[in-house]
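Minutes, project huddle
Topic: does the predicted pose make sense with iron/sulfur cluster bound?
PN asked that the exact inputs be recorded in the minutes so nobody has to dig through chat later. Recorded below.
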Amino acid sequence: MGKPTGFLEIARIENPYRTEEARLRDFDDLHVAQPADVRRAQAARCMNCGVPFCQSDFGCPLHNLIPEWNDLIYRGREREALERLLRTAPFPEFTGRVCPALCEKACNLESDALTNRDNELYLIETGFEKGWVQPRSPKTRTGRRVAVVGSGPAGLAAADLLNRLGHEVTVIERADRPGGLLMYGIPNMKLPKAVVERRVRLMEEEDVRFLLNTEADPDALRDYDAVLLCGGAKKPRALSVENADAAGVCFAVDYLTAATKAVLSGEAPAISAKEKTVIVVGGGDTGNDCVGTALRQGCKSVVQLEMMPAPPAQRAANNPWPQWPRTLRTDYGQLEAIHRQGEDPRVYQTTVKRIIVGAGGAIEAVETVRLEGFEPVPGTEQTIPCDLMLIAAGFVGCEAATAARFGVEPDARGRMLPGDGSHRIRDNLFSAGDMRTGQSLVVRALADGRAAAMEVNEWLKGGSI
Ligand SMILES: Cc1cc2nc3c(=O)[nH]c(=O)nc-3n(C[C@H](O)[C@H](O)[C@H](O)COP(=O)(O)OP(=O)(O)OC[C@H]3O[C@@H](n4cnc5c(N)ncnc54)[C@H](O)[C@@H]3O)c2cc1C
Ligand code: SF4
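Predicted holo structure (tokens), as shared on screen:
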């Protein structure tokens, strides 16, 4: 159980961010990893509580065996700790970087919680460094063929498990690189793309096939024994204001994709914030990624509009531990904007009333209005200059075209969620990840991909699911 008095003696130490000044100069990893002695001391703080909420439904969606691997890290038995971790976590190098660490918010130590995410990252990176992570192909093959559509975390997790179960797996991906939002969405500084590519290479060595630049076509998939749709939920919520299609107005994921392509190619981005006055519509995590990216590209200024009021600093009475705390968080991009501009870029209870375009048809300014209970307050309009508007107002489900091609009617929230709550839509067709649940988190997509893989496996074996 770690050190019995560890949590009383040792303070929580997270992997710190590099300074704003240093990290704004590049798109490299935000964090600085800590050495083994720090991680072992951090793991010693785990109390192995009678009821470990960290691995319950309130905590880790993968139900990672957190107290067990923390104890092994404390004892310096990292290789065994990694084996315990890999029993439930397919790709800790992703979750160890981008997971919001639901487990830590559910920890009995509350705000002083264990640093599970950093410990998990330490384990997997130590495993890669020491050569403990090697291709693991199954000894026998079942002869059954499964097509996985989409190579985001859900598709990768499902492909990984189905392959380990002995099926022959082909991942079909429309983009030029695998990874879904891990590749084109989450910026490089949060998740370096070399980390995604390293995992894909490993899966290829384990005999998973990736077909890139390929649109999934049901006719071409006829020969597969099962098809699992993991196409994500990237359909963005549009702004219903005049001139929303003007030049200089674009959706956040398109902008972030162009930014990552530029980082990877070394060429100028197709959409750039350089020397632009940027307005990000949406105060959430995607909006924060746009703020951090625009600052790195050298924008003149950046403002982030949010319709909701600012969340409280402390948990509200109706949001007790171990629930996820709906409190004010200031993320890396916002911290960088405060550093660069001297104030928080977020403007709450405010929305776009009008987009003003210039003679050439490109955006020039935005008229905003303050909201009270989602209603515009007359007389609060303000016109602010803007030559790049990034819409990060959320997502409304899966793409209609893919759903139609596979003859599936998404529900009112744009999800391919089978009515019985399973992953099987009909016959040999299954769904998983954001496409099934709506836009969520990497860790939830991984868990859903694995759950779907188990159902596909049962179905292929001819059992009930
Ligand atoms: C900007 C941004 C930042 C985020 N940051 C975080 C974060 O820090 N932490 C976190 O936990 N979550 C984050 N998320 C959420 C997380 O990325 C998603 O929940 C997760 O990626 C969903 O995984 P998925 O596999 O279901 O779908 P996706 O990752 O969306 O992958 C779907 C894939 O399917 C492919 N595809 C779709 N249709 C077809 C077709 N017809 N044929 C072939 N291929 C197709 C797409 O090209 C895509 O590659 C973020 C989301 C965004 C938008
Ligand atoms: S995947 Fe996320 S919730 Fe699960 S142990 Fe890791 S950091 Fe915690």
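Observations noted during the meeting:
- The longest helix spans residues 442-460.
- The chain has a mean pLDDT of 96.
No decisions taken; revisit at the next huddle.
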